[in-house]
């Protein structure tokens, strides 16, 4: 069982809901990126998909998000180290 799947199950047991829901969870730690989608309905759990990528990690995700935000909003925050650290 992947870590995101275990996290979803733990969350559902700690926070029971009466309605159906789809839950997306991801884990982007050093050296891997894992994604899981779980459908929850009447205390039944069905893993829709659970995949991992060993060539993508949290640093890649952070860098991609940072690049997207600077391009999308025409931000020049990379020019100031203090701003870059805060983001």
From TrEMBL:
<keyword id="KW-0067">ATP-binding</keyword>
<dbReference type="Pfam" id="PF00012">
    <property type="entry name" value="HSP70"/>
</dbReference>
<protein>
    <submittedName>
        <fullName>Uncharacterized protein</fullName>
    </submittedName>
</protein>
<comment type="similarity">
    <text>Belongs to the heat shock protein 70 family.</text>
</comment>
<dbReference type="GO" id="GO:0005524">
    <property type="term" value="F:ATP binding"/>
</dbReference>
<dbReference type="InterPro" id="IPR013126">
    <property type="entry name" value="Hsp_70_fam"/>
</dbReference>
<dbReference type="GO" id="GO:0140662">
    <property type="term" value="F:ATP-dependent protein folding chaperone"/>
</dbReference>
<keyword id="KW-0547">Nucleotide-binding</keyword>
<dbReference type="InterPro" id="IPR043129">
    <property type="entry name" value="ATPase_NBD"/>
</dbReference>
